[in-house]
Amino acid sequence: GLTINPERLAAIREERRENSRYASLRQCRMEVAEVEALYRKNQIPCLNSTNYSVEEIATKILDIMGLNRRMY
Q: How far from 63 is each of 20, 42, 46, 54, 60, CA to CA, in Å?
């Protein structure tokens, strides 16, 4: 699973929908806490994606899973 720092999530959402409940720090904290609890309950490995690009996240997942990248 992926997670993110609630403050970063709120900043991203604020760009999409200013001053909305969706973008509120309280909402983001609640959602991140819920998904992290779900990961723990179901023993799902979790990667914090706060400071990584999509490409870096993909590379980390491939490394964790022991898969080789293929260049086409």
A: 37, 22, 14, 14, 5
pTM listed for this prediction:
0.82
* H helix runs in 1-72, sequence order: 6-16, 25-41, 54-65
Residue pair 51/12 in contact by the 8 Å Cβ criterion: no
DSSP state at residue 42: T
Query: Is 47 in contact with 64 (CB distance < 8 Å)?
Result: yes
> Which tokens go with 52?
């990584």
Q: What is the pLDDT of residue 40?
A: 98
pLDDT score of 68: 72
